[in-house]
Amino acid sequence: MSKTVFAALLLAATAGFARAEPPKPLLWKVSDADNSIYLLGSFHLLKASDYPLADSTYAALEDAERVVFELAPAEMNDPALGQKMGAAALRSDGRTLQQSLPEATWNQLSAYTARRNIPIANFQRYEAWFISLMVGVTEMQAIGLDPALGLDKHFAQRAVDAGKPVAGLETGDQQIALFDGMDEKEQLQSLQDTLSEVASIEAEIGKMHALWRAGDGDALFAATGAQMEAEYPALYQRINVGRNRAWMPRLSGMLDDSASDDTLVVVGAMHLLGEDGVVAMLRAKGYTVERL
User: Fold this and answer.
1) From CA 224, how far away is CA 267, in angstroms rounded?
2) Residue 19, SS3?
3) Which of 15, 55, 206, 286 is found 20 to 30 A from 214 (Cα to Cα)?
4) What's the pTM?
5) Residue 39 burial (CB count, 10 A)
6) What is the maximum span of the chain, computed from C-alpha positions, in angstroms?
7) By C-alpha distance, which of 34, 132, 15 is closest to 85?
8) Residue 119 phi/psi, 5° resolution?
9) Strand positions, DSSP E, the chain
C-alpha cells in the first residue's frame, strides 16, 4: 500500500524530535440545545515525545460523561484481534503468495524480506493486503512508532481509569472486513506501492506528523484522504465515507437522545476531515460546530 494510503489507514505519525509545545489538537465541539459531543482526531501510533497532549483534550475527557472509540477498549486491547486479522488474511484460493504475484513484485518482496531478515516463507500463506500492512507496520516500528502509545489507547486507558463508560462505533470484525474486502487489483497495487516506497516512509510520515501537530486539518487531509480517493477510489469509499455515514446515526443520537450527557468521540483523524468527514456531516445537519 502506498505510504500515503497506509498512513491514512492507520493515521499514524512520528516526530523524530522532542518538542516542548504539545500538538494543537484536531478537536471539535458539536452541540445542540442541551448537550455536546467532542470529536478528537486520533493517530494510532505515536512516540513518547508526543505527550503530554494539549490541555483542551484532557478537559474534553474530564467534561464528558462517556467516551466512544472506533473499537471498544476491551476489543482494542485484545490480542485475539490480531489473530483474527491473520486468520482472515489466510489464502483460500489454493495458491501461494508467490504464485499470485508478478515475478517482479515477488523479487522486490524477496529483497525486502532479506534486508529485514524476515523469512519470506512466513508470507506465503497470506493475501497481499496483509503483507502490505505487515511491511508498513514493520517500517513504522523501525523508525520508533509504537502502537501502545497511540492517541486512542492513551485516552482509552484514561477513560477506564476515570471510571467513565466506554464503547465502540464498530467491531473488530467490521474493520478486518474492510481490508479483506479489497479486490485482487487493489491488493497488488497496494503491495507494489508499499515496496516501492519503503525508503521514503519515514520522511512522508514525518511530514504528516508535522501537519497533525500543527493542527492543519486541510493540509493533512490533502496528504491522506484526498490522495487515497485519487489512488484508491473504491477503498476510500469503504474505509472513510461508508464508515462515516454508518456512524452518523450513533453520533446524532448522542446529541438528540441524551438530555444532558456529553460524549468524547476519539476516531482516526481522517474521519473528521474534508467534505466527507464527520465534522462536515454534522454541520450540514444543523448542529453548532466549534473548533477548539
Assistant:
1) 15
2) coil
3) 286
4) 0.85
5) 26
6) 61
7) 132
8) -60, 120
9) 27-31, 36-42, 66-69, 166-168, 263-268, 288-291
Angle at 62 (CA atoms; ends 43, 41), nearest 5 degrees:
20
- pLDDT band at 165, cuts 50/70/90? very high
Range from 48-52, 65-69, 234-238 that averages highest in pLDDT: 65-69
d(CA 131, CA 187): 9
Q: With contact defined as beta carbons under 8 Å apart, do 83 and 169 qualify?
A: no
Classify residue 94 as left (phi > 0), alpha (psi -120 to 50) or beta: left
Q: Which of 238, 189, 253 is CA-nearest to residue 2? A: 189
Structure-block grid coordinates of residue 131: 503483507
Contact, 233 vs 38, CB < 8 A? no
Q: What's the CA angle centered on 171, arms 169 and 29, to 5 degrees?
A: 15
| Separation CA 125–CA 188 (nearest Å) | 15
pLDDT (tens digit, 9 = 90+) per residue, 198-218? Answer: 877 777 877 887 888 889 999
- Retrieve residue 68's grid coordinates: 466512544
Q: Identify the H or E element spanning 43.
A: none
Distances (CA, A) of 232 to 91, 174, 238, 270: 23, 19, 10, 15
